[in-house]
Amino acid sequence: MMTTCHMAVLRCQETSTTSLAHFDGTYVHEGAAEMVKSIINIRESTRAENNEVNIDLHLLGGFDDDRELSVKLSTDLLQAFHSIQVDGHTISLHLRTFCCTSLNTRHTTKRGAEISLPIIYGAAVELKTGQIYPVAFDEQARAPMCDMRGAKSLNSQNNKMCNIYKWRSERVVIPAFTFAPFPAAHEWLEQSDAFIRKHMSTSPTAEPLNFASHIRESLCFIVAHPEPMESVFKSNHELQYALQDGKWMLTWVKSCCFGL
Q1: What residue spans define the domains of the chain?
Q2: What distance lies between CA 123 and its chain's CA centroid?
Q3: A GO biological process this protein is involved in (predicted)?
Q4: pTM for the full predicted model
């Protein structure tokens, strides 16, 4: 789900390998570079001999927000992908879609005042064809462990972007992480939805109705697991989920290096 945030989609012209990421404005250059590297790593596993890599780039998200956070992120993403270099490869990125900021803005009237809203809040990719289309996600589609992942985004000590889908095993993998202290989490849970939107969103007037409930889920996880390395990631184990009968199910865990 995006308001000022953006979505980037990379698709290799040769192998159709596709990478999708959600950018909130932090670690933009690092995240863009990791997306390209993931495309190259999968391409090399197919034993491709040509070092010239052609990748289609699609950028979506943001809108004309009052704080101009969206336009900054749009610019940062364009600069990040433009500057990417990978040793031993010639990277050509082809911008195919740019539905960002002013190009993703609609206007409406709320309580007598005109406000700007995003046209597209979410998008999906058809892997067989590469087609990108707007979507509204069902709550079940946010699984697995959306409260845990939201808590990491909200209060993790290491908030770098993380690739959680492992294509070889077709599993979602959540590495171990810990939180910064958040002693006021209980107080936040006592506040109204309007208060949470105002103080925890980059664009309060543009948020969908379920924004506050998602924040509450994350806060509840933080309250229930103030030390996730002890209660969730015991012995520094990552969590792995496999899709079974349409649901993401916890399968097994293994030791991993600390951090995301």
Answers
A1: 1-137, 139-260
A2: 12
A3: ubiquitin-dependent protein catabolic process
A4: 0.89
